UniProtKB/TrEMBL annotation:
Its EC number is 3.1.3.16. SMART domains: PP2Cc (SM00332). The gene is LOC105052776. It catalyses: O-phospho-L-seryl-[protein] + H2O = L-seryl-[protein] + phosphate; O-phospho-L-threonyl-[protein] + H2O = L-threonyl-[protein] + phosphate. PANTHER family: PROTEIN PHOSPHATASE. CDD domains: PP2Cc. Keywords: Hydrolase, Protein phosphatase. One of its GO terms (molecular function) is protein serine/threonine phosphatase activity. This is protein-serine/threonine phosphatase. It comes from the Eukaryota. Residues 1-179 form the PPM-type phosphatase domain. The keyword Cytoplasm does not apply.
Amino acid sequence: MATTGSCFLVGVVSQKTLANSGDSRVVLGRNIHNIGEIAAIQLSPEQNANMEDLRQALKAQHPNDPQIFVLKYGVWRIKGIIQVSRSIGDSYMKHAQYNREPISAKFRISEPMNMPILSVNPSIITHHLQPSDFFLIFASDGLWEYLGKQQAIEIVRGHLHSGSAKRLIKAALHEAARK
């Protein structure tokens, strides 16, 4: 638990209200009246180092740490290690007592070490569902890295009752193979 972690995405639909808490992304497909199209509306904010506003907030919390963000292979990483800013676990990035032996030196964070670096607190969004809200897509960055939200909405719209999840995965894998 000290050097491993996980993100989560939870959605609760109750009485025409969706409550979302998580680091992945929820995208809503909304029927646009009179034109027969579906709009893709992102309901949950992404909590990863590639988001400029998140980088600015963490830099403000860690002003004496020039290595709070490191660009590796074209991707921003917190302390050069992890993209997400919120997780369950990853204790060595939240509490100094877990950032020492017996943890392997390759996992330890060097000074300056103003803890916590990561947060366990989810972002919580509430969205009141409208009659024109058609469907929701819950997915991790593994899907959204390769598919745009409108592209995903179109895939689901075309196959609502016939394996839309499988088609999303297949489309993302196809895009990943092209890169």
